[in-house]
Amino acid sequence: MLEINDLSLAVPMHQASVQAVSHVSLSMKPGRVMGLVGESGCGKTLTAQAILRLGEHQGITKTGGDIQLHGKSLFSMSEKQLRKVRGGQISMIFQEPMTALNPVFSIGSQMLEVIGLHLDLSHHDAKAHAIQLLEDVGLQDAEHLLQQYPDALSGGMRQRVLIAMAMSANPDYIIADEPTTALDVSVQKRIITLLRKLQQDKGLGMLLVTHDFGLVAEMCDDVVVMYAGEVVESGAVMDIFDHPAHPYTQALMGCRPEVAKYGQALTMIEGQVPAPGEWPQGCRFAERCPYADADCRQAVAADAWQDNEHIARCVHVQSQVEADASC
User: Fold this and answer.
1) Cα 280 to the center of its chain, rounded Å
2) Quick check: 148 pLDDT over 80?
3) Distance between CA 80 and CA 137 in Å, rounded?
4) Beta-carbon count within 10 A of 208 CB
5) d(CA 195, CA 209)
6) What pTM was estimated for this model as a whole?
7) 183: which residues sit within 8 A by CB, 6+ positions away?
8) Which domains does the chain have, with CATH numbers?
9) Strand order in the sheet with 205-210
10) 122: how many CB neighbours lie within 10 A of its CB?
């Protein structure tokens, strides 16, 4: 199991270190897809990248908590040990394939480098493995494609190459950070279908970072909702969709285009996510929440409501549940 336990992260800002993620905990299970949801600036990507310690060279530091893979702390590993985990046990698919692929190296050289790092194969066998991976993700003329450079490929093809590279060492877990953001709508559906098929065929655990609840409904088994650097709600996908408990989750789901009435403007959440270092006292969503009162603006709500594995960080959830039950 891949577990994040009470993780806090700080980022460098204005010659100081500012808390950007606070006490985040989640557990990724083999064979299940977890959606990590929230607006831009909520800390989703920071949390996802921390799993592979990718932000350390940018000055992002862990100020508390831990991340464990099969019971072993990833933060206790040496750089040599971590290189084996990256791509070998946990792979990442980035949201912008053109920046994730090196433009001065061919597709083949980049794929063979990843394969060579994790698998003990001859050059001939490694090349055959790369061709098979490209074919598995639906790319034609794979042998010729190995000789191409990233700028010769379309966005959808580049994303498929990244997926093939992520799968090259048969990892246990995949982290997909907004994997369809940079793609045309016509391509997004095919990429999501491909990811879901690969995940199911291989029995992978997957963390899907997104702001799209439609994508969550299609892909995910479990959902974690983040706001202003902290988890505000988590649970099974059907619990979240059928009974969204936290006001922020309710507001996000109300913004979906498919729930808008014909001829009316789309619903929006007034205001914006407070930046790190500017978080208010008490509930961080209080300034945008229709239920907020004086207590919300003073006290920090812990996981105030729980129904089995469905958890919400809001003191008003229980009163809402009781009011609904009495109707």
Assistant:
1) 25
2) yes
3) 30
4) 27
5) 13
6) 0.90
7) 155, 156, 159, 191
8) 2-89+171-259+268-326 (3.40.50.300)
9) 90-93, 173-177, 205-210, 33-37, 222-227, 230-236, 310-312, 305-307
10) 8
